[in-house]
Amino acid sequence: MYHIPMLNIKNKPSQPIIAVSILSADFGQMAMDCHDVINKGADALHLDVMDGHFAPNLTMGADMVKGVRKHLPDTYLDAHLMVERPQDYVEQFAKAGCNNFSFHWEVTTDNPERNNRVEGVNATDLIKQIHDLGMDAGLVINPDTPAQALEKYLDQIQVALVMSVWPGFSGQKFMPEVLAKVQWLRENGPDTMRVEMDGGVAPETVQACAQAGCDMIVSASAVFGSDDRQAVIAALHDGAKYWPAALR
Question: Which domain holds residue 177?
């Protein structure tokens, strides 16, 4: 079996990471599908966690992380929590073997427009808890949230994730208008912070993501929906080569 050493995303990026989202995998053969995409060139696995409230879908929890970790002990697991109360999941995800824990700015106390039923979490406190439990920390913004919402956290997080679709379901169309937010984050964040793109990324859209400054690129249905996963992952890596030389 092809062995890939565990990533350390705190190191200054030298090239974009291609992470495959298991949301589009066959849940009946999850371990097999995860091994398959890693062996065919993916750098990491992305786990889209939804609670049926923040996003209109119910997907996976810490047990899935634990199961994937058991079968892929050296693979970087990048969890994206699309949930109203991410603070309820930090400890269990850390114990399950998660490497990065990203949560949405929209559920923090900074957002005055959050749903009335959402208590709101203090982002700085949650980032500290994530770090104290040994994980990298990320903040996520929806397509209608400005990049500037993350400004005061850029020196605290390892990942700034820009959603290029609305949270909820795999297979949505990529929204190119969010690329300007990637450029702002790249220009204003530290060199070591990863700027991640998630939603509708495929061989046809990956080049634009890389050119804007993304160095962590997530793809789901484009990979798992293909009869030739290796070719799609290779095409994603090829498109990612358009990452600006000035960022290397």
Answer: 17-243
